[in-house]
Amino acid sequence: MFSEKMNRPIGICIFQNKVFVIQLYGHCINKYELEGKLIKSVGSKGNGEAQFDVPLGLDVSNRNSNVYVCDFQNKRVQILTQELKFHSMLGIDLFKYTRDVKVTRDRVLVLDDSGPCMFVFNSDHVLTNRLITRGDGKQTNFPLRFDIDRDYNIIMSDYNNHCVYVFNQEGEQIHKFGKEGQGNGEFINPCGIALDSTGHIIVACHKNTNCLQFF
User: Fold this and answer.
1) Where are the NHL-type repeats located (predicted)?
2) pLDDT digit string (tens) for 58-68?
C-alpha cells in the first residue's frame, strides 16, 4: 500500500484522511495519503527539534491538528504541526521513558515508564495529575499502549502480564480481562490497542497466532 519501504513501523494514526506512521529505527514520522502516497517525512536520530531517538506512540489533536509523538530515549513528547514542522516539546525534565500518548478535547495523557505512570495535562499543557496505574493491587508490568473511551476510562495493554486493564479517570482499576494463552480472550504479549467508533476494543498481540481480537 505505502509508496516506500519502512524501517520497522510501530505507531499509526489516521486523521482527516491522512495517515501518520512512526518508523522506529528510522527515527522519523511519515505522513501519507490514504492510498499510500508519501506526502512528507520528518526526523532523524538525535535530540534536537524534530529529531527522535526511538519514537513510539503518537496521536493527533482534534482541537488544533497538532501531532504528538513520544520520543522514548529523549524522555519527552514532541509536538509537530499537521505539516510535520516542529511546534514545541512537552515534559522536559519530567518523563523517564515515554511510551504512548493520547489527546482528547481538553486533556493530553502520556504513558511513562516511571511507576509506570500516566501524566495528565490540560489543553494548555499544564500538568494537572499523575496517575500511578496499578492492576489487581500491584503495579502493571510493562504497559505498552492505551486508548480512552467515551467515559474517559483508560484501556491499557499490559505486555508482560498478558492482559488488558481498564482504569477510571483517577487511575483506579475497574476491569481486567485476558490471561496468557492462545485461545479466545487470551493473549501472549498484547501490544497495540484501539477502540472503534462503537466502543469495541481491538487488541493486537506480539506472539499470538490470532494477533487481533475484538471485545
Assistant:
1) 39-83, 174-215
2) 999 999 999 99
Cα separation, 81 vs 70, whole angstroms = 15
Compute the distance between CA of residue 128 and CA of residue 119 in angstroms, rounded to an integer: 8
Q: How many domains does the chain have?
A: 2
**β partners of residue 157:** 145, 164
**Angle at alpha carbon of residue 134, lines to 129 and 136, rounded to 5°:** 145
| 158 plus 93 within the same structural domain | no
Report if residue 102 sits inside a domain: yes
Look up residue 180 and give its DSSP letter: B
Strand order in the sheet with 55-60: 55-60, 67-71, 76-80, 86-90
In angstroms, the CA 20 to CA 101 distance is 14
Helices (H), strands (E): how many in the chain?
Answer: 0, 21
Q: Please state, in angstroms and rounded to a whole number, the distance separating the CA atoms of residues 79 and 155.
A: 23
Q: With contact defined as beta carbons under 8 Å apart, do 148 and 154 qualify?
A: yes
**pTM, full prediction:** 0.90
Residue position matching grid coordinates 524522555: 75
Three cell numbers at 127?
500538568
What is the span of the domain harbouring residue 199? Answer: 142-215
What does residue 155 show for φ and ψ, rounded to 5 degrees?
A: -105, 115
Instruction: State whether 117 and 150 are in the same domain.
Output: no
| Mean pLDDT, rounded, for 79-107 | 95
